[in-house]
Design goal:
Blueprint: E1 3-6, H1 9-16, E2 21-22, H2 36-45, E3 50-55, E4 72-78, E5 81-87, E6 95-100, H3 107-116, E7 121-153, E8 156-162, E9 169-172, H4 194-203, E10 208-218, E11 224-235, E12 238-244, E13 252-256, H5 262-271, E14 276-307, E15 310-317
Amino acid sequence: MPRSIFPALAGILALCALGSLQAGAGKAKDVPKGAEKAVAAVREAFPKADIDEAVEPKGFGGSGGKGAPLYWTVRFHTGEKKQELSVTPEGDIIRLPVPIEAKELPKAVADALAKAARDEAIKSAEKNEMRATLKYVALDKARVQHYAVDVSKDGKTTRFVVSPDGKSAKATDIRPEKKADKPAKELDIPVKAGKAVAAIKALFPDAVVKQITHEVFDGGTGELEILTYEIEFVTKGTEREMVASPEGVIPHLWAPAKDLPKAVTEALDKAAPGAKVESARAFEIRASLRFGALETPKVYYTVEAEKNGASRTLKFKADGEPIRAFEFPKK
């Protein structure tokens, strides 16, 4: 079963994508550092528009002042109509909605709409292009989150988890590795998981895959997006588990640490004076979660229908299939 880590993403994107508001032109604000490409993308898509501001989103997508946000909210206006778009720092518009007339809907969508809203008035329609999706993007250089160092003293081995700056050094339990026999046959690898498995086998050439699950999110297009594959495998008599993206990017892993930073060794000297370092590993962050451009935009349509003063929004794939919010199984 797929597991979701972003079940509400579709709703978030719907709120931060495009909205028509009643207001006049406001004074344009300076473009914040890092938002230049996002603003340029909006200017290219809407050459007659005036840019009002570019801001980091609050909550999901924002960096909290600690780096680059997942996207910028670019607000602009054309005449009296105000709009806003979510655009990545690289200049990719995440979702581009284009207002259309109901008569411009594809036949498959028009037929599906006729069945779904037989006696309702059509107030508006939009063609939506999802141009980017969440994915793990490799960092230029791996970042160590913490070290796990096994030290021995007086015949006893202790494991310390130490921060790179040495300000935190805590003793923790040493959990035994899970031993396992090499499976007689490897799991049949799904084609879509091929790059993820290949990335792990590049690190563990003798790995034999036992099981593959995946984590997904609902981007609102009617298709669940796979964020990572969780791969269980056996290597050198030990059962392990790692994750990798469909593109073959490994977000994080434990790697041997040959040379410990001075701050780490000094922290160990204080925490366990006179102890000998037996082994050390570094938990490396090798990728960050970003919105990446899709090779081909995913198109879907939204229609606002009204009856007796009550309105509702219907969504359809390009082939006319209705789009409903995916309900993930409750644990």
